[in-house]
């Protein structure tokens, strides 16, 4: 019987009787069921679906980086809450309790890693990012016990439970608990979409908002890639995005995952359940829908509060039918990602795949426990030795499903850095120190136990097949171990080795093959004929295997590191290098030279001392992997060669920037540098660079370029590209020559002369190939002519305005190997590359002294010109914008004025008036305004002091008068200066603060940061920051327009470019001053004239205008961490006090409407409107007395 809305009253009545549910849970459950029964669902019209633009799904790489300024990072993190979804159990992996307590790596659980990550963030940046765990009723009790062990950590851990809803009996549509099912099976947590109302109902949401938190980062606790990302957080804060979903490129394993779409002008999540049947295959395609939801979400806390209170989060309902204890039940759930369409200015961010590393099964556990990942400060980091951007595909049989079984079947986790896929089924057991490479399948027949021995190396599409048991057959294997039954012997498709072995390794594979085939023969009637067949096949297989398998590298001498300089890389390999020229710490030009095919760091180049001295050049030459004394790389590619260069530069500390120069086949790593490490380059030079004929070049160009080579060379390059595993056989077989034997087909006469001179140095050639031709030259060809991850025509110019440099290609016009037309095409596509065409020069152009010097001079002269231009501009800009240091105060200043020393070493000057502070009933700290000081001319009469028993404390704010400047002055620092001054002078736990004009912003700071210290606050004609976030824009626009145009420009400079304010205030090109008549009334002008006659005007600016008035403007009009309308009333029943705002109705600077709006939003602020008063009202005796009386009463 299908349920309808008629079932709702019966259901509601039953739910009302469930005492286990809270009122919020009852309401939420009934609303969910009501929506489900009414058939409420969004209908998607397929034709209206659009692919989101980069503005909606922002590429991660295009987001602005976070500066290295610790204080800026701290400010970002102070606005963040981290929330982990912790409601799931580990039962699917054979564990009890919350899944988050499963040990992931090195004895640490998911929860351990999360706490360590946040603890390290808090420690590094001096912040207090809280961790929140959303539990379910299934995980609550266990989690509460577990978090106790983190009591001494530097992390505030909060927990709350998501809702607990009753499962509904499908046939009767009544809550199962009402039918007597009162244990846990009668209930369910309603999906992670419940995070928003549950967070609000727990009270945590309001708590975090009151603490100044703005965003919550929500992620599954089992996603090891879901870590705090400062780039994303900064982007959201700057762009005021209420919701952000992290998405990542979809693979074939993710085709069912939800994706982001643009629909009717909004971004929203599209799940497969919403897709019409006829479009399901299109949805699963990775061509149209290229991204999927990682469930890493960033959400604005105030937006959550607004939407939950308005009951506006109507996410799609996911009906989840189940059968429990033989009863068919229904549970209704929602997903947090579906909420994206209800938030304003919501976006997605297309993040790297590394941010999605969930552990849902033991196959995932194998990935993260292997050498594919390392653990640093709680963060799981991928091994750089893995060149494949995707993780291996791992499929383990049901025997491995439970964690305990999984761990028992591996003596140690195998090495899988070079693994593509692994499929294991049956009763399989792994020994220790096993290495898995390529595609591996291991299958054990039912009832048969199969063991993979210690130290085995299983490589590339190895298939394991089970032999047929033979009760009388026993065999001693070639490595000397015995098997009890023949079915324990494995047949290997390509390679099975056991670590480094001697020459018996080939016999080992051959021997196993014969043994396996013999077992098959045991069942045949014609055994002799089959034996001959087996022998023939075995010999053929053995010959093929011997022919195509490359030899191991020739070992280097044990003392090789004593013979030549070598540096150890992070993956354990060594690179040999040679340094020439100027010391690297004094050199102006640092050039890394990449040798060509069959060469080495000893390449014979005409590097003269005159050239070195003229341009102060430091040269670094090194043996690329497998050449000379550099260790080979087993999976060498253009990317690995590129990162070898970067790591070598870092290890030798040559600096953040360098120029790379590659010749011939040695030029392909230069393309790699332009692609993968452009930020490290000061320039790049490609000399007669290789052409990969499988780039996306016009077909006629690539065809004609390839035909420049002799036919033998063409075939060699084709083999290297299409069949790299066959290249060793091709280069060593005797049937066809791999290269043309006539040098004149590939070299000019001058090339031949240069080659003859070059090859006279036999030790250079011998040194370059000392480890064998395969790991050096042949691997070089494979890397250069392989399928690259990019095309050179797609490269971006690495040298923008803020990253000076240049790229050059040198083309020899008589070169018989490199097509000039292709180089012209590249430079046409990439106009930022400068092409140099050299007449009467061949492929070995770089070995000609005059040409080599031209190449080096071009590099250095351009760098010198750029350095000179940049230097002059930088010097002028620096001189123009750098503020002067503060004018020193007299040495005896502390003797002449009362000053108190703060904890950071600065001094504040102050003045006390009125009643003694230990007897006063009213203690008022007065905060002076712009261009003023503690000596402000105010009417503090003795009668007023005596009447209200007032103690006044006046002080010079940082940089004013005799108070030391604060180099990082902000609203917050001014606030804490007030609190520390009060404590140092021991005026008591409570005080009243009064601030005027620009001096009012610290009063806002006190209400935000130290409300517990206040007994009251008064804001007199307070400043308006025109960039407050929650203020209506039309009000702010109207407020700024009442100011003179030149003053508006000054405030915009202070807000958007504070580092430029000193230049703006001192330059002569644009007006910065204002006509006082435009901003002051007639009475204001009279008061100002009286006021400016006082000598204290000079005193307040004695340290210079920058550290006083200009820094004051920056602090007041910068980006605040909060908005005044977000302030909470600091005066509850237990904390008596009041807040007053004084508005002068004739004020020409402060718009009354803005003050009215603030007081409307914050009704606990009392607004005093004063007629016939202007901006200087506080200097009028009657108005000043009214302000003080209001504060005291």
TrEMBL record:
Positions in coiled-coil regions: none
* EC nos: 2.7.7.9
Q: Which GO terms describe its biological process?
A: callose deposition in cell wall; pollen development; UDP-alpha-D-glucose metabolic process
Which reaction(s) does its UniProt entry say it catalyses? Answer: alpha-D-glucose 1-phosphate + UTP + H(+) = UDP-alpha-D-glucose + diphosphate
Entry's localization field: Cytoplasm
Pfam families linked = Abhydrolase_1, Abhydrolase_6, UDPGP
Major subcellular site:
cytoplasm
Q: Which family does it belong to?
A: Belongs to the UDPGP type 1 family.
The name under which this protein is listed is UTP--glucose-1-phosphate uridylyltransferase
Q: Which organism is it from?
A: Arabis nemorensis
């Amino acid at each position: 019987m299908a349920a309808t809305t008629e079932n709702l009253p019966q259901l509601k009545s039953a739910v009302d009787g469930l005492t286990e549910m809270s009122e919020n849970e009852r309401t939420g459950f009934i609303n969910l069921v009501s929506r489900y029964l009414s058939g409420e669902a969004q209908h998607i019209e397929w034709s209206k679906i659009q692919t989101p633009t980069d503005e909606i799904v922002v590429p991660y790489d295009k987001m602005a980086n976070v500066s290295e300024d610790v204080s800026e990072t701290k400010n970002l993190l102070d606005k963040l809450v981290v929330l982990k979804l912790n409601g799931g159990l580990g039962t699917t992996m054979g564990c009890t309790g919350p899944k988050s307590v499963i040990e992931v790596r090195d004895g640490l659980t998911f929860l351990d890693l999360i706490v360590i990550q946040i603890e390290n963030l808090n420690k590094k940046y001096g912040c207090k990012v809280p961790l929140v765990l959303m539990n379910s009723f299934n995980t609550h009790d266990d989690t509460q016990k577990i978090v106790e062990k983190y009591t001494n950590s530097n992390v505030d851990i909060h927990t709350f439970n998501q809702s607990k809803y009753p499962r509904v009996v499908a046939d009767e549509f009544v809550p199962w608990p009402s039918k007597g099912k009162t244990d846990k099976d009668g209930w369910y947590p309603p999906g992670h979409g419940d995070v928003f109302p549950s967070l609000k109902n727990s009270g945590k949401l309001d708590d975090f908002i009151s603490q100044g938190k703005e965003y919550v980062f929500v992620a599954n606790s089992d996603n090891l890639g879901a870590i705090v990302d400062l780039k994303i957080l900064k982007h959201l804060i700057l762009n005021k995005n209420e919701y952000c979903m992290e998405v990542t490129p979809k693979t074939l394993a993710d085709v069912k995952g939800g994706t982001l779409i643009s629909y009717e002008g909004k971004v929203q999540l599209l799940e497969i359940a919403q897709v019409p049947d006829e479009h399901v295959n299109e949805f699963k395609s990775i061509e149209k829908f290229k991204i999927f939801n990682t469930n890493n979400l960033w959400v604005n806390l105030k937006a959550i509060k607004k939407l939950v209170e308005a009951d506006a989060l109507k996410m799609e309902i996911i009906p989840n039918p189940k059968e429990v204890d033989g009863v068919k039940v229904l549970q209704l759930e929602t997903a947090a990602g579906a909420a994206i369409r209800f938030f304003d200015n919501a976006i997605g961010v297309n993040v790297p795949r590394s941010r999605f590393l969930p552990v849902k099964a033991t196959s995932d556990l194998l990935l993260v426990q292997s050498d594919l990942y390392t653990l640093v400060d709680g963060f799981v980091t991928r091994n750089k030795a893995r060149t494949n951007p995707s993780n291996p595909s791992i499929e383990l049989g049901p025997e491995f499903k439970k964690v305990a079984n999984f761990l028992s079947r591996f003596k140690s986790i195998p090495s899988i850095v070079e693994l593509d896929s692994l499929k294991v089924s049956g009763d399989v057991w792994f020994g220790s120190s096993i290495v898995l490479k390529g595609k591996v399948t291991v299958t054990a027949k039912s009832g048969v136990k199969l063991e993979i021995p210690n130290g085995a190396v299983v490589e590339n599409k190895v298939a394991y097949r089970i032999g047929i048991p033979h009760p009388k057959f026993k065999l001693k294997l070639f490595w000397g171990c015995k098997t009890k039954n023949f079915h324990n012997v494995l047949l290997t498709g390509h390679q099975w080795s056991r670590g480094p072995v001697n020459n018996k390794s080939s016999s080992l594979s051959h021997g196993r093959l014969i043994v396996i085939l013999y077992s098959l023969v045991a069942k045949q009637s014609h055994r002799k004929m089959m034996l001959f067949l087996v022998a023939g096949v075995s010999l053929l297989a053995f010959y093929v295997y011997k022919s195509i398998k490359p030899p191991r590298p020739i070992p280097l001498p044990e003392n090789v590191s004593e013979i030549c300089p070598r540096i150890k890389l992070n993956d354990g390999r060594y690179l040999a290098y040679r340094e020439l020229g100027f010391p690297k710490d004094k050199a102006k030009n640092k050039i890394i030279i990449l040798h060509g095919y069959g060469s080495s760091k000893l390449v014979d180049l005409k590097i003269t001392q005159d050239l070195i001295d003229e341009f102060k050049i430091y040269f670094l030459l090194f043996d690329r992997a497998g050449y000379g004394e550099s260790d080979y790389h087993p999976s060498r590619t253009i990317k690995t060669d590129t990162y070898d260069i970067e790591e070598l530069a870092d290890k030798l500390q040559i600096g953040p920037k360098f120029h790379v120069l590659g010749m011939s086949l040695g030029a392909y790593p230069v393309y790699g540098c332009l692609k993968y490490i452009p930020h490290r380059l000061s320039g790049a030079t490609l000399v007669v660079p290789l052409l990969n004929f499988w780039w996306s070049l016009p077909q006629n160009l690539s065809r004609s370029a390839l035909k420049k080579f002799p036919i033998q060379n063409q075939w060699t390059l084709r083999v290297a590209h299409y069949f790299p595993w066959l290249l060793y056989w091709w280069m060593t077989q005797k049937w066809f020559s791999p290269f043309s034997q006539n040098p004149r087909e590939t070299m000019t006469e001058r090339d031949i002369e240069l080659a003859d001179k070059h090859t006279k140095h036999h030790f250079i050639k011998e040194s370059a190939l000392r480890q064998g031709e395969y790991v050096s030259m042949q691997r070089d060809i494979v890397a250069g002519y392989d399928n690259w991850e990019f095309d050179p025509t797609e490269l971006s110019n690495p040298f923008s305005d803020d990253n000076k440099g240049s790229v050059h290609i040198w083309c020899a016009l008589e070169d018989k190997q490199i097509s000039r037309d292709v180089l012209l095409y590249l430079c046409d596509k990439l106009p930022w590359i400068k092409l140099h065409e050299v007449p009467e020069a061949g492929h070995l152009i770089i070995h000609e002294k005059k040409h080599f010097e031209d190449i080096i001079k071009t590099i250095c002269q351009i760098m010198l010109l750029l350095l000179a231009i940049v230097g002059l501009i930088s010097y002028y800009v620096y001189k123009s914008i750098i503020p002067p240091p503060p004018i020193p105060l007299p040495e005896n200043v502390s003797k002449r004025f009362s000053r108190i020393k703060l904890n950071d070493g600065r001094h504040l000057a102050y003045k006390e008036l009125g009643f003694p502070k230990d007897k006063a009933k009213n203690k008022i700290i007065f905060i002076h305004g712009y261009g003023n000081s503690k000596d402000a001319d105010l009417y503090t009469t003795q009668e007023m002091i005596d009447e209200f028993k007032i103690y006044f404390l006046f002080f010079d704010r940082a940089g004013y008068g005799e108070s030391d400047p604060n180099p990082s002055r902000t609203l917050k620092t001014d606030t804490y200066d007030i609190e520390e001054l009060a404590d140092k002078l021991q005026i008591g736990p409570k005080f009243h603060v009064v601030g005027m004009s620009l001096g009012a912003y610290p009063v806002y700071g006190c209400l935000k940061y130290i409300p517990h210290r206040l007994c009251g606050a008064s804001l007199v004609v307070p400043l308006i920051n025109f960039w407050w976030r929650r203020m209506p824009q039309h009000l702010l626009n109207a407020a700024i327009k009442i100011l003179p145009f030149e003053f508006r420009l000054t405030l915009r400079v202070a807000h958007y470019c504070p580092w430029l304010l000193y230049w703006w205030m001192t330059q002569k090109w644009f007006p910065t001053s204002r006509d006082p008549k435009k901003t002051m009334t007639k009475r204001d002008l009279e008061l100002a004239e009286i006021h400016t006659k006082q000598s204290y005007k000079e005193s307040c600016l004695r340290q210079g205008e920058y550290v006083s008035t200009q820094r004051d403007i920056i602090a007041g009009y910068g980006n605040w961490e909060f908005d005044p309308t977000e302030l909470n009333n600091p005066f509850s029943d237990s904390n008596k006090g009041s807040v007053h705002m004084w508005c002068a109705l004739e004020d020409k600077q402060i718009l009354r409407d803005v003050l009215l709006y603030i007081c409307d939003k914050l009704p606990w602020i009392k607004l005093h409107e004063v007629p016939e008063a202007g901006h200087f009202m506080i200097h009028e005796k009657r108005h000043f007395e009214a302000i003080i009386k209001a504060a005291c009463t």
